[in-house]
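Onboarding guide, step 5: your first structure request.
Type a short instruction followed by the sequence, for example:

Predict the 3D structure of this protein.
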Amino acid sequence: MSNVAIDLTGVTKLFGNKLVVDGLSFTVASGECFGLLGPNGAGKSTIARMLLGMTRPDAGDITVLGLPVP
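The system replies with structure tokens like these:
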């Protein structure tokens, strides 16, 4: 069993021609505490929406507990 809870690889999101997330990659291990910080408009809410499957990335892969986020 993998120790990876969340894995983002090369995640990119555009709204129209505005790039809001650019090739983001990170891994969160199971049991690890993780915070996402940044100024207004940095893409934090967009990343959360992609993790929850509420919006799809334009490029890259997201897995949660080893399963791809639809």
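Each response can be followed by summary notes, for example: Strands lie at 4-15, 18-29, 59-64, 67-68.
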